[in-house]
Structure formats: structure tokens, C-alpha cells
Q: What sequence folds into this?
């Protein structure tokens, strides 16, 4: 596919277009974000600039090759068997890579894409059935009653809590968690969240991706179709096979409490069985322990009794704090450091 063209079967909001100019005129009234992206996409440049979300660091702009974005679109299409004329719903902001890639997939593969507001409840006014969509966990949580309208859904931008996963087991839609980042042009691996064939379930890599781990047990990604460089991550994994891995947590979030290494993500997975509000685990300075494990919960203060879950005595939070509202990125990811600063400046 030429970069200044789009698939003949592509539709946007049930409209077909005979030229790039016609498409740009339509989107100029539809959405400034979409119009600006498509203007860049159909320009003579062979790359675009994309902002990272800033959930694990300072937001930055990175340069992505358009050809590699197209490769990513084909990889998703191949893995999920989403061919031309696939109906898709865009309910993510196109400021970031996940929203942009919904457009790229549609333009490249000849999908029929509808756009709705990127709200926390995107299916509120949707009554049509779609083959494919992408959401963040908060959108998924608020869309459970209408989720049957989406045949296949990918979820990124944060972890899906155990209580939410439990609610998905009675849903007919196929729901997948994604692993990836802006640098890998969204996901390079996915795992099922419902309709299980095997238990436990691990991330499975997409076509043309190879994975390894380094001396820290952190994931290394070799995906030449979407990245010119090998990506060295800070994500600690258990390498199950050449094509499957289990994500354990981030190397830079390990808490050393009294000489014991604690993994916040592992602890959060257990706590999510008894805590229904949003929360996260953090480590703060402590004279005796070096770092002290604390629990931060969003909402009003309520008694929390930690029992009947698989946590060691070291993994039980020493203190519990409540915050009315977590600080978020524009893509609804929790900004942990900024939220923690509300409690401990």
C-alpha cells in the first residue's frame, strides 16, 4: 500500500471516499485530532511523531516509520483474522499511538471504522455490533453491559484487575490484554482474558516477533517489522517458551524492604481479589526497613481487612492511605508518582 493512498474498501462513519482530499475535508469537521493525524499520514514524510503517555516517565515524542505502522496493522490483522470489511469502533483518543493505529489499520486493511467520543463509557450510545475495538480498562469496566456489541476487544494502557477479569467470564466477546508500548507501535503480544482454553494463560507474541530475557530477567524484544532497534525493557518476565511469557512486574518498581525484594504488581494482583476500588502499591522511605510497603486506594476511607489471599507477611502493606481521586494521564493511566506525592510530598 502506498503511503498517500488508502484501501478501496475503507469507510469512515459509513462513508466511502474517492480521494485523500475528500477524506481530509470530511475529517476537518469531524475531529481536529483525526484531521491532523491524517494530514501527517498522507504527507510526503515517511515517518510521523507520536507522544508517549508518560505513565512510567516523562512524556516524550518519538519518531515512527509509517511503513512499520503498516506492518503492525498487518500483524494484528493476521493474528485476529481481521480481513477487509471488518467493522471497527474507535473510542480512544488519537493523540496517542493506540488511537492512531485504529485509523492506520482501517486505512490499510479496508476496515469500516466508526468514531465515537473517547469517553469513560464509550458504548453508552452505541447500538451497532462491531468486529473489533480497543479500550483502556476503565472503559471496559463501564462497558460490561454493552460489551456483546464488540466481538473482539483488545485492552491496553493498564492492567485489568482480577475482579474485572472475573466479570468477563460471562461475556460472549473475546477480550484480550495487550503488551506493548509506543516504541513497538502498540502491542507485540496479547493474552486472553476470557473464553479460556488453557489455564494459566500467558502472553503470546504476534507474527515476526522474537523475545528473550536479560540477566535481570527483563524482556528483550526483537521485532524488526515494527522497530529498527532491539527493545530492552524493564519488564520482569517468566519466559514460558519462544512464543509465550508471563509478565511479573517492572524492574524499576521493585521495593527492597528490609532486604526482601517485593514486586508491587504481584501484590496488586492478589489484593485485587478483595479490593474493588482502584489502588496501587508503593514503597516509601523508612528508617528501619529502607523502604516501607504502603497501599494507596482511590475513594473514601473504609476499613480494609487483608485475609484469605496469597501474600507473605512481607507483602502485607504496613500502612493504607486513601485519595479521593488518582492523578491520571490523558489516556487514563494512573500517574503513581504524582498521586503518591499527594500523600507523601
A:
Amino acid at each position: 500500500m502506498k503511503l498517500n493512498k488508502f484501501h478501496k474498501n475503507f469507510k469512515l462513519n459509513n462513508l466511502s471516499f474517492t480521494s485523500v482530499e475528500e477524506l481530509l475535508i470530511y475529517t476537518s469537521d469531524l475531529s481536529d485530532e483525526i484531521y491532523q493525524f491524517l494530514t501527517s499520514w498522507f504527507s510526503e514524510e515517511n515517518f510521523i511523531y507520536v507522544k508517549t503517555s508518560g505513565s512510567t516517565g516523562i512524556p516524550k515524542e518519538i519518531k515512527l516509520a509509517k511503513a512499520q505502522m503498516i506492518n503492525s496493522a498487518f500483524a494484528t490483522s493476521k493474528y485476529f483474522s481481521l480481513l477487509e470489511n471488518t467493522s471497527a469502533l474507535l473510542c480512544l483518543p488519537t493523540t496517542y499511538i493506540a488511537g492512531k493505529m485504529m485509523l492506520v489499520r482501517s486505512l490499510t486493511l479496508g476496515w469500516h471504522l466508526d468514531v465515537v467520543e473517547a469517553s469513560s463509557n464509550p458504548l453508552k450510545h452505541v447500538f451497532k455490533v462491531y468486529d473489533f475495538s480497543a479500550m483502556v480498562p476503565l472503559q471496559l469496566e463501564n462497558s460490561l453491559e454493552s460489551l456483546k456489541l464488540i466481538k473482539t476487544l483488545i485492552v491496553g494502557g493498564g492492567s485489568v484487575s482480577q475482579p474485572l477479569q472475573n466479570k468477563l467470564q460471562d461475556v460472549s466477546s473475546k477480550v484480550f490484554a495487550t503488551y506493548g508500548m509506543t516504541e513497538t507501535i502498540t502491542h507485540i503480544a496479547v493474552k486472553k482474558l476470557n473464553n479460556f482454553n488453557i489455564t494459566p494463560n500467558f502472553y503470546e507474541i504476534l507474527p515476526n516477533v522474537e523475545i528473550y530475557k536479560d540477566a535481570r530477567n527483563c524482556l528483550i524484544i526483537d521485532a524488526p517489522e515494527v522497530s529498527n532497534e532491539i527493545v530492552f525493557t524493564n519488564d520482569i518476565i517468566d519466559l514460558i517458551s519462544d512464543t509465550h511469557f508471563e509478565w511479573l512486574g517492572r524492574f524499576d518498581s521493585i521495593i527492597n524492604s528490609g532486604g526482601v525484594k517485593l514486586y508491587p504488581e504481584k501484590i496488586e494482583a492478589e489484593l485485587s481479589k478483595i479490593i474493588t476500588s482502584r489502588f496501587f502499591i508503593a514503597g516509601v522511605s523508612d528508617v528501619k526497613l529502607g523502604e516501607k510497603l504502603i497501599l494507596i486506594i482511590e475513594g473514601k476511607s473504609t476499613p480494609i481487612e487483608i485475609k484469605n489471599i496469597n501474600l507473605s507477611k512481607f507483602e502485607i502493606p504496613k500502612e493504607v492511605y486513601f485519595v479521593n481521586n488518582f492523578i491520571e494521564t490523558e489516556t487514563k493511566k494512573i500517574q503513581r508518582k504524582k498521586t503518591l506525592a499527594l500523600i507523601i510530598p
